Amino acid sequence: MSKQKLELTWIGKEKRPKLEPRILVEDPDKSYHAKHRVSDNDIFDNRLIFGDNLLALKALEQEFTGKVKCVFIDPPYNTGSAFTHYDDGLEHSIWLGLMRDRLEIIRRLLSEDGSLWITIDDNEAHYLKVLCDEIFGRRNFIASSIWQHSVQGKGYSGKFSVHHNYVLAYKKSDSFLLKDLPRTEEHNVNYSNPDNDPRGLWRAGDVRNSLVRPNLMYDIETPGGKLIKHPPKGWRFSKDTFERELAEGKIKFSADESRIIRKIYLADQEGRVPETLWLSTDVGTTREASGEVRGFVDVEYFDTPKPERLIQRVLALSTQPGDWVIDSFAGSGTTGAVAHKMGRRWIMVELGEHCHTHIIPRLKKVIDGEDKGGITEAVNWQGGGGFRYYKLAPSLIINDRWGNPVVNPDYNAAHLAEALCKIEGFTYAPSEVQWWQHGNSSERDFIYVTTQNLSSEQLQTLSDEVGTDQSLLVCCAAFHSVTAAKASERWPNLTLKKIPKMVLARCEWGHDDYSLNVANLPMAQIEKSELTADASTNKPSKIKKAAPGQGGLLGEDE
């Protein structure tokens, strides 16, 4: 019987945006750094990006592919409030499509030992699990932890009071190593030393094997001649290991010789294995998070902020100091604040104006050492470091007043060269020596960008300077007296392309917002009576006036 790959399907799944790889433009007036270095570990190259998070992820792809250790995102949980004009099935289709586009880029950004952590609730958690299985592979699922985000009862009689969200975690590959959590005294209460073992405190460990292993199924004879039968699936150790640890005093018999006791020593326990139940006492609640937000702004803005202790646990399990962490749904900026205090390098993306009214004030207090809340005391944060503020550049190609595509006049020469380097797959690295080297894709392959119309004489000069052992992609407005085919024969070390014709079919130009706010999506006027489902197939039987890429209910074979 052949194996079939199970996939989550929805109407419009095949629709994928042709994203423009925008460049990032720093605004030094909004960047912020500590006035002096606090420690040798201060990090100043953190990045706060203002703009659409899908375009921002695409903008980061060239520089950060395979370099990000951890991505934490807190996407919109229940899109119903934004999708009031849509049928419920349509809502799910849009949400899944927009999440899929982001998750695919996130996977490319992650290092081989990197991981993704997503907070989500019941409205989309199970759809998201299947979607992540498809993108990351089911074998790379780490866990779905339960976070007790609320402790106070709420709701109405006849309904459950919801007190949990999920933290869904995936790894990029088997190279990922889940770290242990630190131990506290409360985790050591079961350790004692009733037999005065010189190795110190210990507890009894499980001696039963969880899988059937015939070579571990042996009976043990006690000093008094009794026989202890092996557990149904065998012991957790071989006979040689048993005899060695018995001789070393690490295994002992019970007083009545009816069972064996294998000692687990406290001295050997550097940490504790993380569990999938995250209690509010350990990682905080949304109420606690609201209090943290009020510590730097007076206005209530976020319905479900995340407490710093929650992000601290994620980063403790998945990263170490100096690692890159990304949050592309920055919200109130908790991820950046926690990563900063924990010595991780961070990138956050936010499109809302609260990027300026909430996130920047919060980060400034963190950097200045004025943020006394959250995990500050636990990690002994004293301030320091900084961040650079970036905006997404506007679209490279716009239409002029006659409807013709032209290069955006807001682009200066440097930004144009950087943009074409990114689109063509070159690293933007202008040479201080060679005027025609704006970037490179290898040690001998370069790119030159100009808005001039190049003559044959100019092209000949370029070819002579490039030489026979190097190659140059020439991006220009036009070239005279020669076709591209003729040029390749005459100057084999040059490749000529015209701006903007060379990029017109590459991307969706002028699309600035792919956010999960339905106001930014094409509206579909659909009455509930126009979208129904066949009970036997769960397929929509009729859809009218649906916008392209949007669709109806989930069906296995749609």
UniProtKB/TrEMBL annotation:
Catalytic activity: a 2'-deoxyadenosine in DNA + S-adenosyl-L-methionine = an N(6)-methyl-2'-deoxyadenosine in DNA + S-adenosyl-L-homocysteine + H(+)
Enzyme class of the recorded protein, top EC level: transferase
Domain (Ig-like): residue spans on this chain: 394-488
A Pfam family annotated for this UniProt entry: N6_N4_Mtase
GO biological process terms on file: methylation
One Gene Ontology MF term: site-specific DNA-methyltransferase (adenine-specific) activity
Protein name: site-specific DNA-methyltransferase (adenine-specific)
